[in-house]
Design brief:
This protein is mainly alpha-helical. It has one domain. The chain has 6 helices and no strands.
Amino acid sequence: MNELRLFNPTHFVYNTTLSCFGTFANIPMMCLMGVMSAMAIDYNEYKYGRRMVATAQSACSFGNKVGSGIGASIIGWCLGLAAYDGLATTVSPAVIQAIYTFSIYIPLILFIILFAFAMRFDLEKRLPEIQKEIAKRK
């Protein structure tokens, strides 16, 4: 939905509506994270003979925390680069562009990257074979 927000980034109702749909569009990607970590745990057991559940979950948790921190920092970095002044009576065009950058452009780029990664994730095709091999070892 971010790509549609590019057409008219100044219209409030248009952008609010598209943001709601965009948030719902992210739900499938968020649901994949648990499944992908479970598949990684199975693959780790298949490849190395050790089921490292806690290590995989802590790595996911650490990645989420780092990603949240960087995501929150991007807002400050964009506004800082645009010389945002909270006491100014008017907003400069640079600040408006910074707001578009952290609310439209950067999420769009990251969504495309994550979608491309999720589409290349082929472990699901190999999972039945991997689970049979693990069961045979046990």
